[in-house]
Design brief:
The chain is of the alpha/beta class and 280 residues long. The two termini are 27 Å apart.
Length: 280
Amino acid sequence: MRPATCNLQLVFLKLGGSAITDKTRAETPNPDVIREAARAVYQARAKNPDLRILLGHGSGSFGHFTAKKWGYGQNENWRAYAETGASAARLNRLVTDIFLEENVPVVSMQPSASARTRDGELIHLDAETIRTALDHNLIPLIYGDVAFDETRGMAIVSTDALFAYLAPILKPTRIVYTTVVNGIYTADPNKHPDAQLIREITPASFAEIRAQVGASHGYDVTGGMLDKLARSVALTEQIRALEVFVIGAQRENILKSLCESNPSNVTPSTYIYNPSRMGL
C-alpha cells in the first residue's frame, strides 16, 4: 500500500455512537475506541498541517437510552428534555477530555445552545463559531443533542443532521462516519453472518440498496444507519464534489480516511458519491 498523501482540506468526521459506546447498555462508554480515534486524528494532522476537521459524535447508549427512559417527546415532558441533554453532554465531556489528553485541540460546542428545529428538521444552527474555531486550527466538536422545535416543542438532532445542515455552509470535500462495523451492509452483520458489505452507493443505486439495509444495532431514536445513508446520498446530489465514507472505528481506518486522496485506498468501507463529480 502506498503511503498516505494527506492533502485533504476539510473533513467532517463522526464517531458513531455504536462504536464509542455499548448501545445495548445504558451510559456505557468505550474509552479505548475514543482514544484510538483521537490518536488517528493527531497523526493525520501531523501528516497534513493544513487539514481541518469538524468532529462529531453520536449519543450512543447515553442520549438514546435516556430519551427512551424519560419518554422524550411526550407532551410537555420537559424533564425528559433536560435529562436527555444532560446525558448527551456527559458523553461529550468524556470525548473532549480524551482528545485533549491525546494533544488534539478539540473545542466542545453544544448544539442545543443555538439549534432550532421545525417538525423535527434542523432549521438553524450557529455556524460562525464553528468556522472561527476552524480558522484558528482548532477542532470544533459537536454531538447529537436536544433542540427546541417550533411545532413539536422538542426534538432530537442527530450528528448526521448537524453535518447535513453544515455541509452546504462549510463545504467539506469528505464526510467520514465511523461505526462498529466496516460500512453499510445488506443486514446487521452482528446478527446475520452472511450480510454483505455494500462497497459503493450512488444516487442512482440508492433506491434498490435502501430496501436491503438492515436496522441499527442497539437502541436508536434518530433513525440509525438508514437515516445516515439517506442524508449522505442527498448531500452528494446537492454538493457534487463531496464524497462520503462509512468505515469501522479503528485507528488505521480513520487515519486512511483522513489522509488518502484515492478512495480505493480507504478500505474496507462503503463509499457514497455522485458519479458526476468525476467531471468537475
